[in-house]
Design brief:
The chain contains 18 helices and 15 strands. It has 419 residues and is an alpha/beta fold. Strand 2 and strand 3 form a beta hairpin. Helix 12 crosses helix 13, helix 15 packs across helix 16 and helix 17 packs antiparallel against helix 18.
Length: 419
C-alpha cells in the first residue's frame, strides 16, 4: 500500500510497531406444556397450540465450580496448538483488518480473498490468543452481556425483570467455525429430540449462531457456502437476532457477531448481498520475495517440530500486542473524527457511486479504530487513506462479472477529494 499512497503507509508504520520481525454440549431451554396463544419472555416468543398450560422457561446451566475451571484449563492446555499471530510474516493488510475488527466489532467483519496456501485460515485462527475478555452471565448459552439488553438471552432478560441477581464471569471472546457441510438446524438451533422423547417436553437446543453471539463467526471457503446457509447469515447479520421456527415453537435470541470469511476467488464469487455485509475486504497475494518465502518455510518448520517451544518464543510479542488491543478498545470511545474529514469521506463514497451508507459508516469506524490502535485520540487523513480501500473496494462492483477493484480507484478518488 505504500506504493499506492506514495508515502510510508500507516499500515507499514503500524506493522513495524506491533509486528516484530521475527466445546461442551449447548444448554437447552425446556418448554413444558403451556397455555394457548403466543407468550413472550424477554425477547423469546413461544408459539403454542390452544388448550395447553402456561409456559415456563428455565436454563439447566449451573455455576462454574473451581473443579470445572481446572478441567477447562486442562482441556485448553491439551487443545491443538495455534500458530502465533505475531509470528505470521507479511500479509499486513489482512492482519490490520482483523485487528481493527477486534477493536471495534461494529465495523462488521472482514472478507479475505486470495491465493490458496497464503495463510488466510492460519491467520484468522491465530486471533484466538489475542481476543480480549468480556463479561458474560454465568451458565448462559448466548454469552449474554449483563448490562446491554440488545445482546441478552431470553432467560437473562427474564431474571432482570424479576430483579434477580446475575452471576457474572469474565471469559474470552469466542471464535466459532462454521463448516461448509453444516445443516441449517445446527446453525440456527433446533428442538432437542432426546428431551422430547425421554421427558416429554419441548426443549430448544441453541446452535452455532447462539454460540457466536458477542464473538467471531468464521467461515472458511465462504464462497462455497450453500445458499440456504447464506440466507441464514444474511438474516442474522442484518438484524442481530436469530429466529427459530420449529415444531410449533417460535424462539428469538441475540446473534451479534464479527463475521469473518475467507476464500479463493478462482473457486467462485460471493453473492453480492453477502459480500456487502462484510465491513472490510482484504486481498491476499502470494509472497514473491525469495528470502521472505524461506523465512516463512523455516518458521513453519519450527512450529511443526515443537509447537509449544515455538509459541513460547513469541510470548512477549503476543502479550505486547494483546495489551495494545485492550488499550485501544478502552480508548476507542474517546477518539474523535473532525466533521470536515467525515464530509470528505462521504464525498469519496458519493463520487464512487457506492450504494447505501454502509461504506461511510464502516470507513468512519475503521479510521477511529486505527487511531486508537496507534494510541492517538484524533483521526488523521493518513488513517483514512490506510483503511478506505479495504472499506469501499468490494462495494464498487456493479456488474457481477467484473472483478473486485484492487483499491487503485479508491485511492485515486481519495487524493482527488483530500488534496
Amino acid at each position: 500500500m505504500a506504493g499506492l499512497l506514495g508515502t510510508p503507509s500507516s499500515a507499514a508504520i503500524l506493522t513495524s510497531r506491533i509486528f516484530p520481525s521475527h466445546t461442551s454440549k449447548p444448554s437447552s431451554f425446556f418448554l413444558p406444556p403451556s397455555s394457548s396463544g403466543r407468550q413472550f419472555y424477554g425477547g423469546m416468543g413461544v408459539l403454542l397450540n390452544k388448550g395447553r398450560p402456561r409456559v415456563s422457561v428455565s436454563n439447566v446451566a449451573t455455576e462454574v465450580s473451581p473443579s470445572q475451571e481446572q478441567k477447562r484449563a486442562a482441556s485448553k492446555e491439551n487443545q491443538r496448538p495455534v500458530y502465533p499471530f505475531a509470528a505470521i510474516v507479511g500479509q499486513d493488510e489482512m492482519k490490520l483488518c482483523l485487528l481493527l475488527n477486534v477493536i471495534d466489532p461494529k465495523i462488521g467483519g472482514v472478507m479475505i480473498m486470495g491465493d490458496r496456501g497464503t495463510g488466510k485460515s492460519t491467520t484468522v485462527r491465530s486471533l484466538v490468543d489475542l481476543l480480549p475478555e468480556i463479561r458474560v452471565v454465568s451458565g448462559d448459552p448466548f454469552n449474554s452481556d449483563p448490562e446491554d439488553p440488545e445482546v441478552q438471552g431470553p432467560e437473562v432478560r427474564e431474571k432482570i425483570m424479576r430483579g434477580e441477581e446475575l452471576s457474572v464471569i469474565p471469559t474470552k471472546i469466542n471464535m466459532v467455525d462454521l463448516p461448509l457441510g453444516a445443516t441449517e438446524d445446527r446453525v440456527c438451533g433446533t428442538i432437542d429430540i432426546e428431551k422430547a422423547l425421554t421427558e416429554g417436553v419441548k426443549a430448544f437446543e441453541p446452535g452455532l449462531l447462539a454460540k457466536a453471539n458477542r464473538g467471531i463467526l468464521y467461515v472458511d471457503e465462504v464462497n462455497l457456502l450453500d445458499d440456504h446457509l447464506v440466507d441464514v447469515l444474511l438474516d442474522s447479520a442484518a438484524s442481530g437476532w436469530n429466529t427459530v421456527e420449529r415444531e410449533g415453537i417460535s424462539i428469538s435470541h441475540p446473534a451479534r457477531f464479527i463475521l469473518i470469511g475467507s476464500g479463493n476467488p478462482e473457486e467462485g464469487e460471493l453473492r453480492p448481498q453477502l459480500l456487502d455485509r462484510f465491513g472490510m475486504h482484504a486481498q491476499v497475494g502470494t509472497v514473491r520475495d525469495a528470502e521472505l518465502r524461506v523465512k516463512i518455510v523455516e518458521e513453519r518448520s519450527r512450529f511443526d517440530k515443537n509447537p509449544k517451544e515455538f509459541r513460547e518464543s513469541y510470548t512477549a510479542e503476543q502479550d505486547k500486542l494483546q495489551e495494545q488491543i485492550s488499550s485501544a478498545r478502552s480508548t476507542l470511545s474517546s477518539v474523535s473524527l473532525d466533521h470536515d474529514l467525515r464530509v470528505k469521506i462521504s464525498k469519496v463514497c458519493s463520487e464512487l457511486n457506492v450504494d447505501g451508507l454502509r461504506g461511510d459508516i464502516v470507513t468512519n469506524r475503521a479510521a477511529r479504530a486505527l487511531a486508537a490502535l496507534k494510541g492517538r485520540d484524533k483521526v488523521t487523513p493518513e488513517d483514512i487513506a490506510t483503511v478506505i480501500p479495504n472499506c469501499l473496494r468490494h462495494r464498487l462492483r456493479k456488474d457481477p462479472l467484473e472483478s473486485i477493484d484492487s483499491g487503485v480507484l479508491v485511492i485515486e478518488k481519495f487524493y482527488e477529494v483530500f488534496a
